[in-house]
Amino acid sequence: MLAHRHTASIAEMSTTSTPSPRAERALALATTLATEHGLPTDDLRVLHDSFSVIVHLAPAPVVLRVPTLTVLPLAADVAQRQREVDVTAWLAGQDFPVVAPSDLLPAEVHVVEDVAVTAWRWVEHRDEGFEPEVFLRRMPLVAQLHRALADYPGTLAEWVPLEGCESMLDDVAAAGSLPAEDVARARRELAVVRERCSSVDGLVPTHGDAPYYNALVTPRGTLVGDLEHVGLAPVEWDLVGCSEEMLAAYTAAGGADLDPERLSLMGVARNVQLVAAHAFVPSVPELGTGMAPLIEAWRESPEIT
Q1: With 0-12 CB in 10 A as exposed, 13-18 as middle and 19+ as buried, what is 305?
Q2: 3-state SS of the chain: helix, strand, coil percent to 5?
Q3: What is the reported pLDDT for 291?
């Protein structure tokens, strides 16, 4: 969900770990879906437990993403996740290096007990870590992704990552996940962001959530993944958090010309999204700890007016 969510603690669980209540439910939903499609259920493995629970239907080459933290109505959630499935299937068809939908289930969103589950191909991969040089090496891939997405023939929604931020801020205030002054500032900044974004021209298809982070290193190369927020926005949306060196590498690799003012506005929008994400802290307390340094940096930054 967040451009900088690699700073948040994401629980990686082995098959011997005690699953969280979210993971327990995700495993039950995965079992239901797998059984319906004749896939194995006796060795389900939780790979990640955070904004979504990622379940591997081992030994089948299928991974299910089971969202456990969402504020969107089911119909809106299904529509956006179907756009993700459609875009990734199209990219794969263009031979773009992307994590593709599973070919063992229909390429659609599977609604199981009012949860919008998606199915993906399992790919062998390794962890490269989150060092700056890792992200720097991936910037040509980000430029390549933007060029590929420019030709996508389907319909996409605008400003997807900002959907639901108002209600999420209400939840943050009600839960007391952050001080009231933080929520008040975020609401003011969200109003400014909404106003200024409404007049931004040249919206294009974007990944929506830090493509330089959301990638898997596999034997066949680095694959872009996690396009849950794919939609229309400025390319700068995908580049928030990049160092000057990363931005230069993006441009040098054929990426779009960047507008510094637009990049700054997208940074503010990301910070508002960060504050809104504290709506999930009561359910996943470790997220609050992981996001704390970013919140401190936001507090020390000047408020946009």
Answers
A1: exposed
A2: 45, 15, 40
A3: 92
d(CA 125, CA 133): 19
Nearest to 30 by CA among 103, 117, 100: 117
All structural domains of the chain, each given as residue ranges with its CATH number in brackets, are 5-121 (no CATH), 132-300 (3.90.1200.10)
The answer to whether 64 and 117 are in contact (CB under 8 A) is yes
| Tokens 């319909």 -> residue | 155
85/108 Cα distance (integer angstroms): 7
> Closest Cα to residue 211, out of 246, 239, 249?
239
Tell me 101's DSSP state. B
**Are 47 and 10 a contacting pair, CB within 8 Å?**
no
Query: Which phi and psi (to 5°) does residue 205 adopt?
Result: -65, 130
- Per-residue pLDDT tens digits for 182-234: 999 999 999 999 999 999 988 999 999 999 999 999 998 999 999 999 999 99
Q: Round to whole Å and give the CA distance between 190 and 165.
A: 8
All residues at 6 or more sequence positions from 185 whose CB lies less than 8 Å from its CB, including other chains:
303
Residue 18: what pLDDT? 74
Angstrom distance (rounded) from CA 54 to CA 236: 28
Q: Is 58 exposed, middle or buried (0-12, 13-18, 19+ CB in 10 A)?
A: middle
CA-based torsion, 143, 144, 147, 153: positive or negative? negative
Whether the per-residue pLDDT at 108 is higher than 60: the answer is yes
**pTM confidence score:** 0.91
The residue whose two tokens read 């958090």 is 241
Collapse the DSSP code of 105 into the 3-class scheme (helix H, G, I; strand E, B; otherwise coil) and give the result. Answer: coil
Rg (CA), the chain: 19
